[in-house]
Design brief:
Blueprint lengths: L1 E14 L18 E10 L2 E7 H7 E8 L4 E4 L1 E3 L11 H8 L4 H6 L4 H9 L3 H17 L2 E7 L6 H17 L3 E9 L10 H21 L2 H4 L5 E4 L8 H13 L5 E4 L7 H7 L4 E4 L5 H8 L4 E4 L1 H6 L8 H7 L2 E4 L13 H11 L4 H7 L2 H6 L17 E4 L6 H4 L6 E6 L2 E4 L4 E2 L2
Parallel strand pairs: 1-4, 1-5, 6-7, 7-8, 8-9, 10-11, 11-12, 12-13
Antiparallel strand pairs: 1-2, 2-3, 5-14, 14-15, 15-16, 16-17
Helix pairs in contact: 5-6, 6-7, 7-9, 11-13
């Protein structure tokens, strides 16, 4: 028998989410690689075997064994679009929205992103780390093992770099892995009101080079975790031409691209982002038939955000069913942020997507694992239970994966295994 560190066996359902190449599309999005009475063997931080429990129990002698009888074992969830690193809150704006104010009205009055930017710009790196850590704790308890983390609440070179530095410190000190994204073109700060082009000059000529220089000296570069560049293409933020200019500057530096498009208005940002080669295009709430066809014909992943629609009181969710049926690749995300989606829970996002966007539970699970991993350029490393991949695994206190979306409001996660280390619910005590 071969000695290993960890053997999880007798799972009622072992959901591998295995994908031979690239994100899952169309009918393949329903394929979960489900194995009844399944087992997974882990050595160090790596998965070394997947198969029937009887076979793996004969082949391996583990230091630690977990009997997963009556439980689902699946990949750790991946959250591909977050604004989790910030200071302050928007409690007053929450009440304004309840009173009838729209997100756009609040933003135009100096609230929204600008409000959080003021609080974040005033915070030190240590204060940002302290404010963000409890949110990461929540996300980990709810099964997220990797998440993207955007800047964009600094809006000055110094403050944007502080957000990146806080992201790096959190990544090094918290079990949850973070993937950095530079989003200097998130909003136009008040001191550049009416001078969007001048602000974009600052972002492109000063902020972006500073962010790249920081990244090249960071542990992210050593670990081959990419630095993405994003832009908010929307009325009141950056128009299509300005967004193209931002993405072109990043592409010239060899950086992978993302874009916020079609959240409130269909400006033509989706076609531009696809032409620029964005890895993902995010929101897509108002994307119509022509845009869906363009997405389906592209390698980009549409990252959909039902929690934002719910939180802003909207009824027009992104047309996920039409996208899937057209052959587009989609992923799901929380978009956790202090304004439009103060939501740490991917299980809740799955429940929303099934109810309001007509995803099947298996499609939602793939959208929060393997497809989300591909939206971060990490599909070869995480997002599925396959030999050679990182041992990011969940034990769920359910015996059928469909409960993930069928039930909502609770937490089905019993244990999180991150890089082979076991964390127990609810306190996430390290148990190995």
């Amino acid at each position: 028998m071969q000695a290993i560190d960890l053997l999880i066996h007798r799972a009622a359902q072992l959901i591998t989410c295995a994908s031979p190449a690239g994100p899952k599309r169309g009918a393949a999005l329903r394929e979960l690689g489900l194995l009844a009475d399944g087992a997974v063997a882990v050595q160090g931080s790596t998965i070394v075997a997947v198969g029937p429990s009887e076979d793996l129990r004969r082949a391996y002698a583990a230091v630690t064994e977990i009997d997963a009888h009556g439980k689902v074992v699946c990949p750790g969830f991946v959250d591909p679009h977050t604004h989790v690193v910030y200071a302050g809150h928007r409690l007053d704006e929450f009440e304004l929205r309840i009173g009838g104010a729209t997100y756009q009205e609040i933003m135009a009055a100096g609230g929204g992103i600008a409000s959080t930017a003021r609080a974040t710009a005033a915070a030190s790196v240590d204060q940002l780390v302290a404010a963000t850590r409890p949110r990461l704790d929540q996300m980990l308890r709810l099964g997220t093992t990797t998440a993207e983390a955007k800047t964009g609440y600094g809006l000055t070179t110094t403050a944007e770099l502080r957000q990146l530095e806080a992201t790096a410190l959190l990544d090094q000190s918290h079990p949850l892995d973070l993937v950095p994204t530079f989003l200097g073109a998130h909003a136009v700060p008040a001191d550049y009101a009416g001078r969007t082009e001048a602000y974009l000059d600052l972002v492109i000529n000063e902020m972006l080079p500073a962010a790249v220089a920081w990244y090249r000296q960071s542990h992210f570069a050593v670990a081959e975790v990419p630095l993405f560049v994003d832009v908010f293409c929307e009325q009141g933020a950056f128009d299509v031409a300005q967004s193209r200019r931002m993405l072109a500057a990043a592409a010239a530096l060899g950086l992978p691209l993302k874009a916020h498009v079609d959240e409130f208005t269909e400006l033509g940002g989706l076609a531009m982002a696809l032409a620029m080669g964005c890895v993902s295009v995010d929101h897509l709430d108002v994307t119509g038939a022509a845009g869906i066809a363009q997405l389906a014909a592209s390698p980009a992943i549409g990252v959909l955000i039902p929690a934002v629609t719910l939180n802003l009181g909207g009824t027009h969710y992104a047309a996920a069913r039409a996208m899937i049926d057209a052959g587009a690749a989609i992923a799901l995300t929380t978009d956790i942020n202090p304004g439009s989606a103060p939501c740490p829970s991917l299980p809740l996002v799955m429940a929303l997507a099934c109810r309001y966007q007509r995803l099947l539970p298996g499609e939602a699970l793939n959208a929060c694992t393997i497809n989300a991993a591909h939206a971060l350029g990490l599909g070869a490393r995480i997002g599925s239970i396959e030999v050679g991949k990182q041992a990011d695994l969940l034990l769920l206190d359910i015996d059928d994966y469909r409960y993930l979306a069928y039930e909502f409001g609770g937490n089905p996660v019993d244990q999180v295994i991150k890089k082979g280390v076991i964390y127990s619910h609810p306190g996430q005590e390290r148990t190995q």
